Amino acid sequence: MPAKQLYIVRHGQTEYNAASRLQGQCNSDLTALGERQAQAVGSSLAQRDHISSFAIVASPLGRTIQTARWIARALSREDGQIGTDERLMEFSLGEWEAKVASGIKAEHPEFSSMRDWYLNAPEAESLSAVQTRLLSWLNDPATPAHVIVVSHALTGSVLRATLVNLDDDQIFEQSRPQDGYFYFDQKQLEFIDCAHLLHR
Question: Which UniProt keywords apply (predicted)?
């Protein structure tokens, strides 16, 4: 894998997040809190000394584009400077997309202790398929060596696990914050908390 430096951002809270609905590759807009989270991440990134050398690349789904636009504004960049790549999209969750998580779990009590229960959705995208597309993106010569990645909860977890060589059982044990982001360099992953920057 080529040497890279990455900031890994999850999109801000969405209407579906607030309602505990599964999104997958369908979409819902950022909430007011989600916009503040995106602004906070942007404000924090703007304080990083080397940030001018970092490209912004987002999943093409609406919620990640919205988040990336807030980040671009904080970095004094135009929306046209945001790249997109389908390989950064969230898992497809098949027939469970837009359904309320609690309702699915009520129908499937066997999921109560499973962290990766979403992947049991009928016609869901497999973990190995997502790992393959993320490795393709990381190894692509066209992928910037310094990049702010705006992605999703599950896909972001897989990306971070790939970078630091976590095994499959550890992938979904990771946190999936929306008011902070991760910095990867030299095989090390650092979390930067932005909660204190949220504008009330």
Answer: Glycolysis, Isomerase
- How far apart CA 34 and CA 93 sit, in angstroms, is 22
63 among annotated binding-site residues: yes
Q: Which two tokens stand for residue 102?
A: 């609690």
Q: How far apart are CA 153 and CA 172, in angstroms?
A: 10
CA distance 52 to 181: 17
* Secondary structure percentages of the chain, helix, strand, coil, to 5: 45, 20, 40
CA dist 88 and 30 (Å) reads: 18
Could you list the active site residues?
Answer: 11, 90
Confirm if 34 and 16 have CB atoms less than 8 A apart: no
- The two tokens of residue 37 are 């989270």
Q: What's 15-55 look like in SS3?
A: HHHHCCECCCCCCCCECHHHHHHHHHHHHHHHCCCCHHHCE
Task: Find out whether 64 is annotated in a ligand binding site.
Answer: no
In the chain the domains, ranked by start, together with CATH numbers, are 5-197 (3.40.50.1240)
10-residue mean pLDDT profile of the chain (200 residues): values are: 88 97 96 97 96 97 98 97 98 96 91 87 96 97 96 97 93 94 94 86
Find tokens 């027939």 and name the residue.
Answer: 95
17 annotated ligand binder: yes
Across the strands, what pairs with 57? 83, 149
Helix 62-74 vs helix 32-46: crossing angle, to nearest 10: 40
